[in-house]
Amino acid sequence: MQPCSESFTSSTESPTNPVDTLSRRALNTTPPAAIASGATPPGPSDFVLRARTFEIRFPRPPLIMGILNVTPDSFSDGGLFLDADAAVDQALQLEAEGADLLDVGGESTRPNAVPVPEEEELRRVAPVLKKLAGRLKVPVSIDTMKPAVARVALDLGASLVNDVAASRMTDEMWRLVAHSGAGYVVMHTQGTPQTMQVHPQYDDVAREVGEFFRERLDRLSSLGVRAEQVILDVGIGFGKTVAHNLRLLAALGEFRTFQRPLLVGASRKSFLSAVAGGGVRERLPGSLAAACWAAQAGAQIVRVHDVAATRQALAVTAAIQAHRTE
Q1: What pTM, to 2 d.p., does this model score?
Q2: 303 is annotated as an active-site residue
Q3: What are the helix (H) ranges across the chain?
Q4: CA–CA separation, 192 vs 222, rounded Å?
């Protein structure tokens, strides 16, 4: 097992800074044994992710990003954690189950979701982030499309911005990321949550997603966002058919050339039911299969609702992989 201090470390700032409080505690934590005990997935070696005071070095076992939706209408867990205290309890539970990162969102981005005003999104997420300050050992990500929400979240201690609108043409979000040094998830989508599943089309979905990543990385660099701040997300379920989602999962290895952490978020998504049947409450087995496939195909981060089950599934997969002889 690799000590945490070699792969998941932080710098030191003023002890009154809530970001520093989180990061200094993270320095003394050990990655969950269940995901750190096996083989490191295939892929390019020796690159780093920097997210404000956090530094995560790769290669290393895959990271688990736990999902915390503070929304009334998310497709899987909408309404469960609208109360700030309930959300905080869930965040601490996800960390206890082995989450390496926590992704907090206050606006549903499911297909046909109704846009949420900035003020309402802040009303949902700000109390949760305030209550979490200093209580978590892991980095917090804010899942938002709005620069103003991201700015408040970063002021309250978040270390990353998970941006499903990274295809935008305006640069306010990117300048904020550059100035703050936050980690930044560049997610591919076609359209908006209101339009993305109407009739998504690609000539070659894997090639076009790769071209999008290349263009975004160049654009971000021109605005001062360092490559080592960036995570890439192929956007499973965002402007994709079932076939597009499956093709992207099959082609994950093609994105290793970017030398950036690759995030896959397939947890509980509808393509799993299209492939294997069952309703939204019956998608855990498919979610675990997708997470294990992604990790073995080279994804460095899996974004999931069911942290404990995913940690166990990844541990078994990694243990088997470690005993391969060819």
Answers
A1: 0.86
A2: yes
A3: 4-7, 18-26, 33-36, 84-97, 118-132, 147-155, 172-180, 205-222, 242-250, 270-276, 284-297, 307-322
A4: 25
Our answer to whether residue 137 is catalytic in this structure is no
Q: Decide: residue 312, CB within 10 A, 0-12 exposed, 13-18 middle, 19+ buried.
A: middle
d(CA 69, CA 104): 6
Residue boundaries of the structural domains of the chain: 4-322
Distance CA 125, CA 153 (A): 8
Rounded to whole angstroms, how far apart are CA atoms 117 and 15?
34
Report how far Cα 160 is from the mean position of its chain's Cα atoms: 9
Question: Closest Cα partner for 30 from 52, 47, 49, 5?
Answer: 5
- Out of 110, 124, 303, 311, the active site residue is 303
Cα gap 53→13, rounded to integer Å:
8
By the 8 A CB rule, do 225 and 177 touch? Answer: yes
Contact (Cβ atoms closer than 8 angstroms) between residue 174 and residue 147: no
Mean pLDDT of 120-140: 96
CATH topology of domain 4-322: TIM Barrel (3.20.20)
Between CA 191 and CA 210 the distance in angstroms is: 17
At 222-249, the pLDDT tens digits run 999 999 999 999 999 999 999 999 999 9
Q: What angle do CA 108, 114, 117 make, to 5 degrees?
A: 85
Set 124, 269, 283, 311: catalytic member = 269
pLDDT in tens, 255-264: 999 999 999 9
Between vectors from CA 206 to CA 181 and to CA 58, what angle results, nearest 5°?
Answer: 40
Q: Which two tokens stand for residue 157?
A: 């201690």
